[in-house]
Amino acid sequence: MNLGDLTKKQLKEYIGTIGESAFRAKQIFKWVHGGIENADEMTNISKSLREKLESDFEIYLPEVYKKLESRLDGTVKYLFKLSDGNIIESVVMDYHHGKSICISSQVGCRMGCSFCASTLHGLTRNLTPFEIEGQILRAQKDLAVKISSVVIMGIGEPLDNYDNIITFLKNINDEDALNIGYRHITLSTCGLADKIYSLADENMPINLAISLHAPNDEVRKNLMPVAKAYSLSELLDACDYYFDKTHRRITFEYALVKGKNASSEEARELASLIAKRNAHVNLIPVNPVTERDNVRTDEKETRAFQRELEKLGINATIRRELGADINASCGQLRNNEI
Ligand code: SAH
């Protein structure tokens, strides 16, 4: 097990069982979540305890396997290599006067969305809490920056890796670790409604983004198999519960696919579906994935869809395209390597 996969509480328990003083747990927690890569870097910890930690745990941060830097806007895309050789993707962006990182939650994905590159080869495995956090720590070290906000929108379905995501969130929020506020964290889900209820009850007011992509169940089932497990009405009930509990405004993501979900009638249907909710729609002209036959809407169609929503009182934006010169949509960089 990686030392960084322990919660602070588990680390305290471990320190107790090996007969060390409790305050050591806090010191070690700070080192590990500060990005050290070897126990010898813990300069205020005795040699014997460092050796004990080395023998009981692995200390490993994802390694930079490939790095692409945009000359247009400073966006950096990484392929990181995990200790077992698996590859994941992360992206660092300049955002509202700070650095934001988009991270992966699984190696591959089993949700099967028809437009998404991450799911083409299915799910290999879940990431551990520290493999998720390690993407932030490695990027910070590599770029010599402090990352101030996190979006869980890379490869994988975070709520399909629920327990590890919760540990990850607790750890990065800790004042002895990265100390990233919940309001600076966004989790994107394809809509596992039962897990949205659980998340709402965790008392962690993170921002929630829902990959909606359709105004009705029929269209949604066509694009996303998860729609067969949860109807839109079940999903939106879960969203309402989340909003009531956390008071965080929910973002609905909507990838526009020509001829499938992008007509003005569908815009009106979408508007009435979410009308009474304090919501925001983020429109993304779909990134065509070579293996699929989806076509993105052109600028005119995208703007028309946005205007239709706004006319009906729905707040809608078109996603900024960052790093256009190094572009490869979700999971596509990784697919080139496996
Ligand atoms: N599994 C999570 C998070 C990962 S995907 C989720 O489904 O939300 C992050 C976002 O990118 C999701 O909204 C997803 O639907 C969208 N996406 C995936 N492939 C895309 C593509 N080819 N073009 C545009 N958006 C895409």
Q: Can you walk through the features of this model?
A:
With 338 residues, the chain is α/β, with parallel strands linked by helices. It folds into two domains: 3-56, Orthogonal Bundle (DNA polymerase, domain 1), CATH 1.10.150.530; 63-326, TIM Barrel, CATH 3.20.20.70. The protein contains twelve helices and twelve strands. The protein has helices spanning 8-17, 23-33, 47-56, 129-143, 162-173, 193-200, 217-223, 226-229, 232-246, 264-274, 299-311, 332-335, and strands spanning 63-69, 76-81, 87-95, 98-102, 106-108, 123-126, 147-152, 185-189, 207-211, 250-256, 279-285, 315-318. The strands form two sheets. A ten-stranded mixed beta sheet has the order 1-2-3-4-7-8-9-10-11-12. Helix 1 packs across helix 2. It is globular. It starts with 7 loop residues before the first helix and ends with a helix. The mean pLDDT is 94. It binds S-adenosyl-L-homocysteine. S-adenosyl-L-homocysteine is lined by residues 113, 115-116, 153, 157, 188-190, 211, 253, 255, 284, 286-287, 289, 329-330.
Topology:
Elements: H1 8-17, H2 23-33, H3 47-56, E1 63-69, E2 76-81, E3 87-95, E4 98-102, E5 106-108, E6 123-126, H4 129-143, E7 147-152, H5 162-173, E8 185-189, H6 193-200, E9 207-211, H7 217-223, H8 226-229, H9 232-246, E10 250-256, H10 264-274, E11 279-285, H11 299-311, E12 315-318, H12 332-335
Parallel strand pairs: 4-7, 7-8, 8-9, 9-10, 10-11, 11-12
Antiparallel strand pairs: 1-2, 2-3, 3-4, 5-6
Helix pairs in contact: 1-2, 4-5, 6-9, 10-11
Bound molecules: S-adenosyl-L-homocysteine.
